[in-house]
Write a structure and sequence with these properties.
The structure is a homodimer.
Chain A (H helix, E strand, L loop, with lengths): L2 E7 L1 H4 L2 H13 L3 E6 L3 H9 L5 E3 L2 E3 L2 H25 L4 E4 L10 E2 L11 E2 L7 H9 L3 E4 L2 E3 L5 E3 L2 H11 L5 E8 L17 E2 L1 H10 L6 H13 L4 E6 L3 H5 L6 E3 L4
Parallel strand pairs in A: 1-2, 1-11, 2-8, 5-8, 11-13, 12-14
Antiparallel strand pairs in A: 3-4, 6-7, 9-10, 13-14
Helix pairs in contact in A: 3-4, 6-8
Chain lengths: 265, 265
């Protein structure tokens, strides 16, 4: 099967115009089929603050009230998404920016209210991905650029985690393509020693993951990311690569500098 | 050839949630291939004001400085576009929201600075429309929803008049489809007497247009609209219909209540 790269970028790239330009240049230099998923970054918080809408977070997740939903729809779906698309077009990459509402691409489900009411926050599963549309866009030579918004099919947009979108898209398309999921973050990879940038763990699989957990070397924030990555490879994704946005071209072309998560050791 | 409707809505529909919902319900009830083009409305001005960015207009056109471009990218490309798409999805209409940067749909050109510097305002011609992409989306059963933004291919988004986008798209696709362009505005049609809502002129063509001009019955604001409409039909659009958003279903299904602009009398 043909390779398909699903690349997720977050605030550390989006919030830095120079870093974003460098990243997009590297990304567009790599041949092949690609889907880019972006998070929001600080712009939404800044715009919200200017509009007098304070951002609220619980356990690192934004609480999306109606006013905040308007802000993230503007900033993620409009400002961030369209600027990335315009830049990719300049680089000769035929990008098309979409939210989950567009073409019914991602049908999310409003998160149930339990201890916390996350508001208009949505969760999405691989079964909720409109595979046919993504395949037709990819086969037409387009590169989908996905904003972290889904819709519930009843007229409601939902703020949705970009890591999750990248993962469910990769899983959903793993029957059609050899899907490689790349999470770009601020470190070169998963580090054995957070103080040592050179301590990148080359590979993580279910076997050595248990070992690493036992050794207690993994940063707390990495554990949910790795569990998601292990879930994704279990569900059909060929590999998940966790690395720096700066190493995107190397990580996509086999000269891997980050951490690869695989199904088997 | 199959019919294709290109429908343009502006502030009088977008700014009124109830009117917009009614319009989208009527529109989605009419079968056939459709493209919706929307303007911005007052939301951009409101958001701009809240962000401390004053809107400037010269001759009814917004001056788009860098800060204003950010606002319109957020509001037109994000908030307005995605809310329309989500509502159409609810109505069973497979809408896909796009700007001119998406899939290189509309390659605009920054307006040359002469007496007035319009800033990041773009003009677009029928030759700048990515016909292949629009046809493939339409043939896949999707309904493109276009925000009034183009890009210059060099990474720059450009604020672009929605009436013009609707017109160039209709012209560009007139080889593939029998294109019918519908401009929705606040009146039922072009009025012979602005004080009399029932004085709708049923048809305007190059012959009676000269007559109407001579009679001096046309409102000043209608003249550029009608000249654009006459240009469009001359360039291949089957007809241009000027009418109320409330009459959209009637106007699309032949029970015409507005003004039809045709090539010949």
């Amino acid at each position: 099967m043909e390779n398909l790269f699903i690349i997720k970028i977050g605030g550390n790239v989006i919030d830095d115009a120079g870093a974003l330009a460098d990243f997009l240049r590297s990304l567009s230099g790599v041949e092949g089929k690609k889907i880019l998923v972006h998070g929001g970054g600080k712009v939404a918080t800044q715009v919200g603050d200017q509009l007098g809408i304070a951002s609220q977070y619980v356990n690192g997740r934004r609480i999306t009230d109606a006013a905040t939903l308007e802000v993230v729809t503007m900033v993620y779906g409009g400002l961030v998404n369209k600027n990335i698309v315009a830049q990719l077009q300049q680089l000769g990459c035929n990008a098309i920016g979409l939210t989950g509402a567009d073409g019914n691409l991602l049908r999310g489900k409003k998160r149930a209210v339990k201890a916390i009411d996350y508001g208009f926050a949505g969760d999405v599963l691989a079964a909720d991905v409109n595979r046919a549309l993504l395949v037709s866009l990819l086969e037409a030579g387009l590169m989908p650029v996905l904003a972290p918004l889904t819709h519930d099919g009843a007229g409601q947009l939902l703020n949705t985690n970009a890591d999750t979108i990248a993962s469910v898209v990769a899983v959903a398309l793993s029957g059609q393509y050899t899907t490689r999921l790349l999470y770009c973050f601020e470190k070169r990879g998963v580090l054995r020693d957070v103080a040592d940038e050179d301590s990148v763990i080359a590979e993580i699989n279910p076997t050595n993951y248990m070992q690493l957990l036992t050794e207690g070397v993994l940063a707390d924030g990495m554990i949910p990311k790795l569990e998601n990555a292990l879930e994704a490879v279990k569900a059909g994704v060929a590999e998940v690569l966790i690395g720096s946005a700066k190493d995107i071209a190397a990580n996509m072309t086999g000269e891997v500098r980050g951490t690869v998560v695989r199904r088997e050791g």
